[in-house]
Design brief:
2 copies of one chain form a homodimer.
Chain A: H1 11-29, E1 34-35, H2 37-44, H3 48-57, E2 68-69, H4 70-81, E3 87-92, H5 96-105, E4 112-119, E5 127-129, E6 132-136, H6 140-147, E7 151-154, H7 161-170, E8 175-178, E9 191-194, H8 197-208
Parallel strand pairs in A: 3-4, 3-7, 4-6, 7-8, 8-9
Antiparallel strand pairs in A: 1-2, 5-6
Helix pairs in contact in A: 1-4, 2-3
């Protein structure tokens, strides 16, 4: 199993692997070197069986008596979900949300880094924000090619969403994380993750109301 | 169907109703008063059949020739997902992300409003940010009760997530939208929506890598 291509892992499994790894980093910081499936399960609100199944899918089985080796598991998850050479990300839209994501993500992952910001407001460009150089959107083509950026996080105004997405696709980007409130229709070979704050909040409000 | 309690609608349907309504507001702004299921479907990357099924679930059927009445549909969706009296929301954590959400959401919905911010940093409190009064976390109990706040959006540092969530639950909040990277375990009567930026980005990066 470990030697095969993991491209067929379900999206939800990938999400959980990312979450396990984040927890494992926290556990390591507490100088704990082994962890049981029931501990990971409790931290994630899952059953221990689900945790063991996920980790068996990527070819890992813990020891009954000592649990999983934390460092070993971090390395293994990295081998599955990270790209060997690293991947580069751009942010389009340098408003509050764009800047929040820049500072939040900065330095969090070795193999995945935000290397450029873009905006059409010249007040926000030709400068460095949270350690990241920021450019005018007329430099998209040039910077994406030079830096070999494959992913863009879209935090622009709704009315600009389609046009800006198109500019990044034309420049060769392969994945878009869409934080605008506008659903995007993209070619089949482009990967898309969408998230909208209003929807999450409205869903929660519906569940909460009497 | 319209007279029954809609509490049993699936979460995914609620999410889509919220998204339909957002699109309908945009359509109305363009002075368009009718919309076909295939137009909504194209905007949402759904099939027209899915759109018609969702809207039939809430008791609405369009006319073959003219489609759906935009204003009527906005009103109907509001009747299902909004609370009649309105609901109040607090934000905990007034960093970049908290402030981004405050300004993003401000005035977007009549029946759902962010009415208070909280932080433990006195530099950020006892003042008004994006029109919203911000308080020290030692005022949680008092403000939540006085304002009758039922939902909190959590954007605090990971190490504070559990403790701050607990303070809001003790104050009577019924729903938490968790933007920290820490999964929360909450009592069964509390509603929880979780979202983590790193996970979305890592999942997308996995899909994009060669």
């Amino acid at each position: 199993m470990t030697n095969k291509n993991h491209k067929d892992l379900p999206g939800k499994t990938i999400e959980r692997l990312s979450q396990y790894r984040r927890l494992l980093y926290n556990i390591l910081q507490q100088n704990k070197h082994n962890v049981y499936s029931h501990e990971l399960a409790a931290l994630m609100n899952l059953t221990p069986v689900q945790v063991r199944r996920d980790l068996m899918l990527i070819g890992h089985s813990g020891s009954q008596s000592k649990g999983y080796n934390v460092k070993g598991l971090i390395t293994l998850i990295g081998r599955i979900i990270d790209s060997e050479t690293g991947q580069k990300v751009a942010i389009a839209g340098l408003g509050n949300l764009g800047r929040a994501i820049m500072s939040y993500f900065s330095g969090k992952r070795e193999k995945l880094s935000i290397v450029a910001g873009f905006d059409n407001d010249t007040q926000k460009t030709e400068r460095i924000i949270a350690g990241i150089p920021c450019y005018h959107i007329n430099k998209i083509q040039e910077v994406i090619a030079k830096e070999n950026i494959s992913i863009v996080i879209l935090t622009v105004a709704p009315e600009a969403a389609h046009e800006v997405a198109r500019l990044f696709l034309d420049a060769g980007v392969k994945g878009i994380l869409n934080y605008t409130s506008v659903p995007l229709t993209l070619p089949d070979n482009i990967h898309l993750e969408e998230y909208d704050i209003v929807t999450s909040l409205e869903k929660l409000a519906f569940l909460v109301k009497e």
